[in-house]
Design goal:
By secondary structure, the protein is mainly alpha-helical. It has one domain (about 30-60, about 70-259). It has helices at about 5-20, 30-50, 50-65, 75-90, 95-100, 105-115, 120-170, 175-230, 235-240, 245-255.
Length: about 260
């Protein structure tokens, strides 16, 4: 569970509601027709832009913003250094037994190429292509979230126009002025909140998760190629440590840089 996302979600809403409460208009922020126009209309427009499977699946992707993912950078360094040491002592073929127990399919496939004697350039091309395809899939979802962020304010303005039309077409009925004006103004508020409170921040969180997963896979690629090239385990360790933050680096530096 990503506590930061929950803080942002409820904290942002709480600040807006508290500000409205201070202004004496908290109850007026709840207006179902405006929410229907802004949220429902902008969501329906996504079907014009993206395939059905993407639009239906967007909610599960947004749910990832509230989960934490451990990409195990420190564990990756330790595993790769350990594999390098074994390969230096017993030969590349000795890694075949280790491969069977790996949960990381990306690393397992890369080491399988090494054990099979595949050329280093071919290994790099294959693994980088898989990495690029992963990032392409992730970026498609991020683009979808950004599209919703772009559409929401537009439908907020559309709701404003609808409210003004209703108000201006029936000026004689003073009882309708308030509801129509509420629709006119609150749809703009909802559109702005959907963009700035929800979808732009969520897009940023998904982008961060993508970059972290891509970094862990880059580490695997460099480690696998280092093992294939027969590099000294200390050299491999130095390469891997450059990917870690100074704090994480200090935690495992003494273990992987053995004399």
């Amino acid at each position: 569970m990503d506590i930061a996302s929950f803080i942002g979600l409820f904290g942002g809403l709480g600040v807006v509601m508290f500000g409205a409460l201070l202004g004496g208009s908290l109850g007026s922020l709840i207006h179902l027709p405006s929410l229907f126009i802004t949220g429902g209309g902008s969501y329906m427009c996504l079907f014009l832009t993206f395939p059905l499977s993407y639009v239906v699946g967007i909610f599960s992707v947004l749910g990832r913003c509230f989960k934490t993912f451990d990409y195990g950078e420190k564990t990756l360094v330790q595993k790769l250094v350990s594999f390098s040491e074994k390969a230096r002592r017993e030969g590349i073929l000795a890694l075949e037994e280790e491969i069977q127990d790996l949960d990381d399919e990306f690393m397992r496939n890369g080491l399988r190429f090494v054990v099979d004697g595949t050329d280093g350039e071919v290994i790099r091309a294959l693994m980088e292509n898989e990495l690029n395809q992963m990032e392409s899939r992730h970026n498609s979802w991020i683009t979808l979230v950004n599209a919703w962020a772009t559409l929401a304010p537009g439908f907020g303005m559309l709701g404003t126009v609808i409210g003004l039309i209703g108000m201006l077409s029936n000026l004689a009925d003073k009882s309708s002025l308030g509801p129509n004006m509420a629709t006119a103004l609150i749809t703009t508020l909802y559109g702005s909140m959907m963009q700035n409170w929800l979808f732009v921040p969520m897009s940023g969180k998904l982008g961060y998760q993508n970059s972290m997963e891509a970094k862990s896979r880059e580490m695997v690629i460099e480690g696998v190629l280092s093992i294939q090239a027969g590099d000294n385990p200390r050299i491999l360790a130095q390469k891997m440590l450059t990917y870690l933050s100074p704090k994480d680096r200090k935690v495992i530096e003494s273990d992987v840089l053995k004399d």
